[in-house]
Amino acid sequence: MTKSTQDSRVTLVLKRLDGILEAENEALGTDPAFDVNASNIRKSKSLYELSALVRSVPPGEMTESHAVLLQQIHTRLELNAIRVKAHMDAVQQVTELLRDAAKEAEADGTYTAEQFYMREAV
What we know:
By secondary structure, the protein is mainly alpha-helical. It contains four helices and no strands.
């Protein structure tokens, strides 16, 4: 692979990853229809492809535009980590609310499902 071709591939992967991160950062917490799993798959594939490409390019051969894109991606990844954590925390809170509501509904003085089945067996 020529240096020009390799530079173009690295740039393409960097820009793709940057776009994926930008879209995910914008959508997390604002777009209820956003598919986190699909975005994670795209992000993982791009990170894997990038790591394979970067290993094949000696550090001294990285261009200035690559360095700028890598710094931008680093910044987006930091923000992404914060947003993903906030999203996961929100999911955990909703899960706890639903669990607590279910427990409260079961504790309204009626039999639990286990007690009901045990009484029928007797």
